[in-house]
């Protein structure tokens, strides 16, 4: 009975919190204006196309992650990786960057894999993404070389401003303050009751 109650609460409580957050975020929304826009200004053919391609994007992410996980534990069901990916992006809507943690925690519970190993596969994914974006950027420069050549002065000016920021005293001072703050916060939380409980919840999620 207690186990069923806990499982029920794991479903009901997040739904209540999510519904409450949505109501709070859109509390000032003028729904009559939204209704008129949906009736007159929305092209539903594009709307449906966006939904389809967004769903396919999640499917391909799940397939890629399944390929990585199969090197650790063969024959992991695709639906489990797909559900974990959907949980990932759903949690990110509420708590940015926490979706990756929830994705690993979900797969850890389903397949009994270690959390650090699962998180390592996500790091591998991000590494692949960086390489892919870099190759696409190089390809775009070669394909649209004339455009970049015509606007090189603007790009150079913006790049100089961006690079100059990394050589300013304020940047390194802010970076040092953030590093020290994170160090002391992590050190405090790691030994605090809250930190120990948080790690216990993650490991037993």
Structure in words:
The protein starts with a helix and ends with a helix. It has 205 residues and is mostly helical. Helix 3 crosses helix 4, helix 3 packs across helix 6 and helix 9 packs across helix 10. It has ten helices and no strands.
Compute the number of helices.
10
Mean pLDDT over all positions: 78
Distance between the termini: 19 Å
Outline, from the CA principal axes? extended
Strand content: under 5%
Content-based structural category: mainly alpha
What's the alpha carbon Rg, rounded to whole Å? 23 Å
Low-confidence stretches: none
**Number of beta strands:** 0
Helix content: over 70%
Could you describe the largest sheet, including whether it forms a barrel?
none
Write the H/E string, N to C: HHHHHHHHHH
Structure described in brief:
With 205 residues, the chain is mainly alpha-helical.
What does the secondary structure layout of this molecule look like, with pairings?
Elements: H1 2-25, H2 31-40, H3 44-70, H4 78-94, H5 99-111, H6 115-143, H7 145-150, H8 152-165, H9 169-191, H10 193-203
